[in-house]
Design goal:
Blueprint: E1 3-8, H1 20-23, H2 28-41, E2 45-50, H3 54-67, E3 69-75, H4 84-93, E4 97-101, E5 123-126, H5 131-144
Parallel strand pairs: 1-2, 1-3, 3-4, 4-5
The structure holds 1,3,4-trihydroxy-5-OXO-cyclohexanecarboxylic acid (DQA).
1,3,4-trihydroxy-5-OXO-cyclohexanecarboxylic acid is lined by residues 11, 75, 77-78, 80, 101-103, 105, 112.
Amino acid sequence: MSRLLLLNGPNLNLLGNREPDLYGTVTLESIEQRCRALATELGHELDAMQSNAEHELVHRVQAAAAEGVGAIVINPAAFTHTSVALRDALTAVGIPFIEVHLSNVHGREGFRRRSYFSAVAAGVISGLGPLGYELAIRAADALLRGDA
Ligand code: DQA
């Protein structure tokens, strides 16, 4: 049994209503529930947090190290393209993480193609909608079992 942490960045609290053509109609609450159920099925415990504030996400990542979190699944949202601080927090704690995006960031505006996270992520999933989070939980499980 390992502890997994699911983190979501700014504006993802609006999922369900936010630009449904891009991000779909599934709410964040439902994504978190599905991920928690899947983590439990795989024998893990999942904690989830969303914040619109960069420093809160940095604090949460730092706390994860003390809690013995084994892997992080993160959609940094707009911080993907701006946050050296959040990237540094992840590399500082050294917890393997998987970067997830609902939309395909490579098929959108040029500024979304640059991620501060991808180069240091264990893997990146982009463009598969809410399914991407479930695939990331499965990937985290495989990583923890030394299978990925
Ligand atoms: C996003 C893509 C980002 O570019 C954007 O700022 C988001 C959501 C996604 O899940 O597709 O807020 O991370």
